[in-house]
Amino acid sequence: MRSRMARVNDRWMSIALSVLLHAALLGALLYGWLRFRQPPRPAPTLAIEARVVDARTLQGAPAKPAEPTPPTAAEPPAEPEGPPQPTPEELAAREQQRQQEEAATQQRLAEQQAAAAAAAEAARREAEQRAAAERKEREAAEAKARAAEEQQRQAAAKEQSEREEDLQRDLAEEEQARRARAGPALASWQSQIAAKINRNWLRPPTARAGIECMLNVTQVPGGEVTEVSIGECNGDQAVRESIEAAVYRASPLPPPPDPALFDRHLRIDFKPD
Length: 273
What we know:
Elements: H1 2-37, H2 55-58, H3 88-182, H4 184-199, E1 213-219, E2 225-233, H5 237-249, E3 265-270
Antiparallel strand pairs: 1-2, 1-3
Helix pairs in contact: 1-3, 4-5
């Protein structure tokens, strides 16, 4: 925009200088024409007739005859003042030069206008291209945002569906486990675990009849025991330690008859007698 304004200012400055130049040229031509149009005025001369008289003549002496006065020479014509009046050829040459200067000025103005128009057209095209590029970038960004939003929506829907499926599966497993625990299968499995622990128990000398201890057993899938703690127990410390060692020796524990019965944390009522 600044370069465009600078070109416009240069154009107007060229026009003003051209107008001032032509005005000065026309004024000089007009002054010369008015100056040389007036006819030359002859220089003023004084015509005086006189006779020379000798002093002796005035005193009575015979005077010499007067010499004839030489004829006055004609004065040369006065030369015209100022520069000579231009000839028609010079006037024609000056007019031709003026026309050439005007034509050159017009050509410069036309070239400046064409350059300004070309610059304006280039700026307009550049602005259109920039606007088109920005529009494409905006559309691409919007399309990318919509695709990301759609992908997030699909991922959320899939995750929600998977959660619902997991919930339904967990509910089904819990229901199956509840029904299994309500039947005789759970009691039978616990009896098998207690029997295996009893087979691996080494009775200490301090053990007495009627021992009953509540065992808290943690296992992993496959029956491997990872932790044992003794709850309520009527045996002494030696009995408690021997029962704990028997649980580890009984690992892996017998698997449940129904996979729905599997539980990581078991409570087993151990009665060795």
